[in-house]
Amino acid sequence: MLNILEIMKLLPHRYPMLLVDRILEFEDGKRIVGLKNVSANEQFFQGHFPGNPVMPGVLIVEAMAQCCAVLFLKDIEERDKKLFLFGGVDKARFRKPVIPGDQLIMECTVLQKRASTVRMRGEAKVDGVIVAEADMLSVMTERPA
Asked: Which of 13, 22, 31, 48 does the annotation list as catalytic?
């Protein structure tokens, strides 16, 4: 439903930290599904791990958080003045390695929303199998001038 150019209009992230390639589905204020094509050319594979490349779990969680940010930033006016930051991560589990050639599908569901915070549950899958999951808390703040 959103391509990379549309995502880049919403998120401030850029290479090498932009970790969402496409948004496949979303329900306003409730749920989002995003996609990350994991390429052998990813910068982090140079050191994690040479000869046995594995996507760092923390970057999988970051990719899920970026999907969450898209869900909430797409309907906010003056979003260029806002930042969507991590407030916390709970119950993170990493079940299988994510390697070059994998297509990471991330589904995030809203658990609780308040004025400036949102708690979401994220699941990341490869070929329909859960590879990672986490509860994430994000906080909306003003960007410094």
From this structure: 48
